[in-house]
Write a structure and sequence with these properties.
PyrdxlP-dep_Trfase; transferase; alpha+beta; three-stranded mixed β-sheet; Aspartate Aminotransferase, domain 1; globular; five-stranded antiparallel β-sheet; transmembrane helix; AON_synthase_class-II; 2 domains
Amino acid sequence: MVDEAHAVFGTEEQVDIIMGTLSKALGSTGGFIAGSKLLIDYLRNKARSFIYTTALAPASCAAALAAIEIIEQNPNLIEKLRKNIQQFTHLPHASPIIPILIGDAKQTMEISNKLFDRGFFVSAIRPPTVPKGQSRLRITISAAHSEEEISKLLSVLRKIMPPYGPVVGYAVLMPGLFLLQHLLFLQSFHPIP
């Protein structure tokens, strides 16, 4: 089974059940499960989360469909997203969600606020969402970001982070794998020219 909430394709031929969201990348609400006819019939009749859930609003369905059509008509958006992710990380990522582990919840919030003051909305993920001592910034890269915006974010991060000392780690989300590389902050964000 694969939850495609943060993925950008690549593993669908290896699984029997795909769960996905119509929010996040598609900007709507709701989700879906794709699988064999036998599986879907079973879920329609036995899955309490389906049976007791209100159907999606027509506007949500229309928004998701329009987003899918935009993606289908503009296949370059996926490649642009991948390039933007690689520009930020210098690694071949499968996810546009890039957490930077800070550790301390208060420091994570301070950094998030400083980024906001400089024009960047970067969520501070803190307990109880994550375990105590594992607070992180959640950077979300999109195809709509320009190279200049990503470069500016990297530059601002380099300026903001030093007073907080080295970052606990640099986390990379990949389908089915959570890879944590313990790196110092400046190493994880490319050498400063």
